[in-house]
Amino acid sequence: MPPSIAGSTRAELARLIHPPLRADARRNYEAVLAAAAEVFAAGGPDASLDEIARRAGVGNATLYRHFPHRRDLLVAVCVDEVEKLCVIGEKLRGSSTDALESWLHAYIHHVRTRNGLAAAFVAGDSEDSVFVAACRAAVGEVATALLQDAQQAGVIRGDLRLDDLLTLANAIAMVTESSDRSHAENLLTLVVEGFRPRSAS
Fold first, then answer.
1. Model confidence over 15-62: pLDDT tens digits?
2. How far apart are CA 71 and CA 57, in angstroms?
3. Residue 10 and residue 138 in contact, taking contact as beta carbons nearer than 8 Å
4. Which of 21, 49, 117, 159 has the largest count of CB atoms under 10 Å?
């Protein structure tokens, strides 16, 4: 079993959120989080908090009890999304030689549908900069582990760098943001073929 990836960075991110322990409160918290991810994805970081509460099936007072400020909710959604990408990466490691490609599909879908969330922190203060750096570090450690696995298995070129890999993945996500998901998947398949050693093509 491969070792846990991005553990320390993920622990730092987890300390930024405070899910309730009581079962009913935890359900409301998770409902708000899921609704917020959808509403922010569709309307950006300034989307209506009233709409989030309505979709979650809770009152505004419940939303503000868990997330007193909009930033608190944005941070919680981002941490949750990053954690999901990390968990996907851990589950994929060792599952097949295509684990990296499978994770890149999930990563590109994340960037295509959640890009507005990151934008909420890019132009922020130093605290926001530290938060964005921690999110990128967690994702980067996942990608590094998967890339190294693929290179050691001989299915991806040994000279491929992480920065190049994620730059291309982000580019695919950006240029296909307004098109069908299959367009992004087809482009990624073509790009990954270029990553393979000639003997593995």
1. 788 888 788 899 999 999 999 999 998 888 899 999 999 999 999 999
2. 21
3. yes
4. 117
Chain position carrying tokens 């909710």: 73
Helix, strand, coil: what percent of the chain each, to 5? 75, 0, 25
Give pLDDT tens digits for 112-167: 888 777 777 776 677 788 888 888 899 999 999 999 999 999 999 999 999 999 99
Instruction: Output the pTM of the full model.
Output: 0.84
Residue 49 carries which side chain, given as an amino acid letter? L
Residues in the chain: 201
- Cβ count near 34 (within 10 Å): 15
Calculate mean pLDDT across residues 50-76. Answer: 96
d(CA 56, CA 76): 15
Task: Give the pLDDT band of residue 79 (cuts 50, 70, 90).
Answer: very high
CA-CA-CA-CA dihedral for 13, 168, 104, 145, to nearest 10: -60
Cα–Cα dist 189/115, whole Å: 22
Q: Which CATH number fits domain 7-200: 3.40.30.10, 1.10.357.10, 1.10.10.10, 3.30.465.10?
A: 1.10.357.10
